[in-house]
Queue: 4 jobs
Job 1
Amino acid sequence: MKINTFRAFKSRNYRLYFGGQSVSLIGTWMQKTAVSWVVFSLTHSTFMLGVSLFASQFPSFLLSLWGGVVSDRYNRYKVLLATQVASMIQASALTLLIFLSHYNVWEILGLSVVLGTINAFDVPARQALVYEMINDKDDLPNALALNSSMVNLSRIIGPGIAGFVLEYAGDGFCFMSNALSFIAVIGSLLMMKLPPYQPKARTKNAFGELKEGLSYVKKTPSIGFVVLMIGLVSLFVLPYNTLIPYFARIVFKGNATTFGVIDSAIGFGAFIGALYLASLKTGSNLKLVLAINTLILGAGLVLFSHQHIYLIALLFAMITGFGMMSQNAISNTLIQTIVEPSMRGRVISLYVTVFFGMQPLGGLLVGSVSKLIGTPDTILLEGIAGVIIGLIHYRYLRKEKLKSRQNVMAHEEAEVQAQKT
């Protein structure tokens, strides 16, 4: 692997961020795995798995636009520090609830709503702050790709540990591990040395700034297209992960460890994909890579949907993870490298709104469809949807390339005519 793969580590603040988040995200994935397993164990319902996803992400859909306004209006560093402390409190409350042994599915879903609300303000501030952590702004795409590798490496480790802990120690220890993991990220934030915060003059109120951000995206088609594509994938394809407990328990006759291994296989594929992205040369055609990886995501789901041989299913899960990783990583990179710094928080918040907003709606959709046609056929349909979206994306890029070529030819012809006259 080329040393350029890790060039963003030249920035001290980013190294601290990466280290703290790496520990915290393992705890986050342990909690996500435990919540899905507990909900399915309590209800034995794939529909309730969709409800669980809806509860954790729909608040982000409702509030992320305002989270972006907050990120642009106030000190992003302090906003991020506050959301991390709040997330630690949420994980501690969930731990206490489980250890008291008097809980039902609605209490768990209620705390998931709390976490979704926190994330609405956390994600825009965190994503926008990465830009400020990087000394050389040319390293930003590399930093965002490394972020994805960090997320997906934690997805390999977290669910695997969670499956073991669920089986041998109990779900409460998964939630407690997540609560403790926030010590690392809070500590890393406190150790950072960022430039002094310079308050900006405000000529508009919060609603006016929100309207300004939406208008900016409308006038920037390159950003609007990326947001549209991630919205379609988030609605029709990415909610497949809500149905994984069904495959672990029903298809492969397994337990919590089986669930953790499947989730880790998806994470391993995504991690490989993230390292591949981080090693791409500056100037690579990320839009084309995104289109191809969307096709890979869809194909992986089609192959996984009706596979009954466990080891082969894990291979297809890795292929799915490889394609899935690009949806967030490349979309985020494309937006962050195009957007104006003053609009960064608001544009990212719109992206987060679409990304997190469509998934819970999709979770309810796939949960309902799975009750009608069965879970394997639902995953098959999601895979087909992924292939179709990838083809639409590829066709759009072909037309964009053709249009660009025509514009160049028209410009050259105009120059020739001008020289003749």
Job 2
Amino acid sequence: MRRESDEAIGPAAHFLRFSMHKLFALVFLTTAVLPATAQPKKQLGEIGVEVANAAIGIRVSANSPELQALAQTAFRSHGRYKLVGSGHSYDLKFTALSATQVRVDITKGAAATPVASQVVTANSARNALLRAADVAVEKTSGLNLRGYFTGRLVFVSQRSGKSEVYSSDLFLGEAKQLTRDGALAMTPRWAPDGSRIIYTSYFKSGAPDIYLLDPNTGRRDIFINYRGTNMGARFSPTGQQVAMILTGEGSPEIYVRNAQGGPVSRKTRSESVKSSPCFSPDGSQILFAMEPGPQLYVMSAAGGSPRRLSSQFSYMAEADWSRTERNKIVCTVRVGGRYQLAVIDASNGQGKQVSQAPFDAIEPSWLADGRHVVYTARDRRTSVLCILDTDTGKSTPITPVESAALQASVWTP
């Protein structure tokens, strides 16, 4: 399977057609980005949902304008909360104590009954604020929700003029360009411990190869460069294995390899086109999409016959299996001529459409609370990253429209 030339491989071209909406999104990166002065009246990706009965009214403040703006941005993205000026259930006050410490003080109701006070330390005041906001979620949500604000993004953007991989905090702060390949980059994914990023790039051979990237040093190593198409790589929950799609032996098949290297092990054998492999939370199963449809299938990570998960939607792809809600799978579906997001119950295959967007909603990735996802919102002109509350359908853009960002993966320290 070693690459012997840069010639186009027939099955690879067929496989790429299977991911056309992903390629369309990449075309938008290179052809049609809105200028900053041409903001639409309503930002792409924004969907307000009236959740007065379900949302908790909170008042949020901080002792600096920058931290207050960040705290309010964070809580506006959370479907469990509603920012109010009065009549609040909780008052959340954030105080920067130093360049690396923030204290959160939580009181309840008009009587300002103390609930909690905690000092959080991080590598910056911004990161400490987000950690303190996560503490506030855990103390006030009433649903035992884990906070997601400290999640770290890795995503594809063309901010430099080329399709490159970037990392940032969840709200695009402390953004850092990680690659300078000058070539098409696709589907970056974090290792579970945040030490590595695996992604596909056309950098070296002009064909799609899989690379491992150290986000701290910028070191990039080839992980797979077999002949044909190499893409869709995902780490197992322990970070010890990688599942991916390779076409070097003909049709697109799922392979697994030790994350430290070594031989690949083929797990599927059929002519059907496959994509987007993803491990179950315990690493014992692999979830993937397969034609016709495509539909979602589950198989043992050791191999064997795949089992169709659901046929509720005619198109199901790009699935992500929650690490915290063990039976929750989010995926891209096609409804009424648009791509939307649905949550599927892994135990019985039953699904529910969770986005109702007047644009395409694709490429979902779970956040740490098992309720919200980061996804790509896309229209004819550009694409942005958004947070979706899968319980209410509320969608909040987290990247500006001119950034043309897509294909995000999230790691939570």
Job 3
Amino acid sequence: MGPRRVAITGIGVISAIGRNAGEFRKSLADGASGIRPMQSVAPGLLRFPNAAEVQDYDPARHFDEKDVGLLDRFAQLGVVAAREAIADAGIEWTPELRERTAIVTGSCVGGQSTEDEGFVGLYKNNSGRVNPFTIPRIMANAGASRISLEYGITGPTWTISTACSSSNHALGQAFWMVRSGSVEMAVTGGSEAIFSLGFLKAWEAMRVVSPDTCRPFSKNRRGLILGEGGAALILEPLEAARARGARIYAEIVGFGMSSDAHHITQPSPEGAARAMRAAICDARIDPEQIGYINAHGTGTIANDSTETTAIRQVFGEYANTLAVSSTKSMHGHALGAAGALEAIATVLALETGVLPPTANYTEPDPSCDLDVIPNEARRAQVEYALSNSFAFGGLNAVVALRAWQ
């Protein structure tokens, strides 16, 4: 038996531009940005005042009091997204399916808020004690483990942490497992919740966060805007999905990864290009079949021009007609959850024929001379798309997707 085709049959999202997949879809189509004044930290404590936070999130609506005490916000967001995706897919669980389902998630920093609270208590408030649930709350696999517990899923379950590429690496590994036949289904994606003062101060020290908003590819871009959220996708063999009459959003057809071996924070166009080529090769298609790229597009000076160079290295003259956009301009840079949010944005673009825009765009930059779909979504039927993630540490992960006809 050869490699199996892999369908996406369920999606779930909680983000700054939507507390479910429907709201997320509408915000993308409207080009509506979720970047607002930060609520998690008191004004004046940071040089950057804005963020892309999940609005009006009440843990008590999703978890009982005991579970809220056990789960950091990042894990809660991952579980909320997974519940939506699993319900959306209409899965009928059997003991055999539970044993043959994988859970592969991504998170950059895990329970950062819990860790920060513990340090505040220990070092600032001179408390001799920390929360007894600190370890299970901060571990990056807390979300994956909770999903396993809730649904009785006993197959391979783990979490990948590769900075901003975490959930694209997770999605790619889950895809390969389903395609190879090592599992019959996968719950995959990622989550992140990073709005605690200590961690934000660390980002402030890097001087890559914008003092106003995120303007990817725009000449006057000033940096990224930090975000949070959770996103989950259900993957299963195409034939199994069709046999049970499941709704098919799209196919995942290829995955590629690379390491820059260049610099811990400065990106390399060669590394990014290698990952894109690897995804296209894995999908067994030609570069000219790609119609849309959801770019990593952080809005930093270095990333956007480097990514443009990488795209031109891969696509040559065809890059002039290729549609490219960065949805981080709307949902922010959710670090380890970014790839999963952007994969779903790409899936929705393929399904609806509406390509999401690069919001907040003001003026062209000669070093970012691509068709970046400025400010307004575009109607276009695209068959193949890429979703790019490029992380600090030089770790790149690219997913190739195909529209379901």
Job 4
Amino acid sequence: MKRILVVGEINVDLVFKHCHALPTPGREVLADDFCMTPGSSSMICAMGLARLGNPVAFRGKLGADNWGAYCLDALRNAGIDITAVQPDATLRTGVTVSLSTPQDRALVTFPGAIAVLRADEVDDALLANADHLHVSSYYLQRALRPDCRQLFARAHAAGLSTSLDPGFDPQQTWASDLLDTLTEVDLFLPNELELAAITGRDGVLAGLRALDNGRTQTVVKRGQLGCASLDQGQLLEVPAFAVDPVDSTGAGDSFDAGFLHAWLRGQTLHDCMRWGSACGSLSTRRTGGTAGQASVSEVDALLANAP
């Protein structure tokens, strides 16, 4: 099995489910349910990979606080190597509050330690003990971002393959430095909104062709529409799988885990996309990003019964 190093952000998700309305200034609303779950794109992807049986190590930063202790326990209990995750008393762990109604949801995030990890803090020893490097939340990781391309280049020089999930840009500038970073990325995993914003192109096919740099395989996540990619210049689409969804939090990160699980085992692009779609779909069965993540046997059963 390929050893995977995930470099990224750590935070807690506080999920208020079935809010009677989204709050407005001066008003209080009630929620029918609440849970606290591991959050952040990087954590959710790492835990999904570990759930599928992959050896995973994590490099990130968090505070020496109760939120940080909760995240460390979650990573440790998932079987993830957290040797490179050391609590820092000068930092505060990030927290996201998710408020959902049947029609929509709103997120409020305190970034905390998310923004401070630098590329030079991912040392050569960490890369030497891995076969693949995955980075999530390019735009949130402000200290990592300027040298992210160099980090990927170092990984390639050490013999690793690489992948990147950009995440949303809270500033909505979608600066073009990402395109330069992609020259050192093997696998790029945006969602449909991110693809359109990064490329400035309407339509999935136009966006995929705009990112076709001769090296990077881009796979775009489309929610209930499944996913799409270019296969020898032609559009390849794979549908999502029918489940009874409870919460879509982190479904794209679980997609990443499923796709990478298959991709690192040399499966075809089409089969990797099916694995990604299966893991993304199955993750929506429970509240939060990690509680419903799939095992290999669950994915196998879903794929075996799919058309």
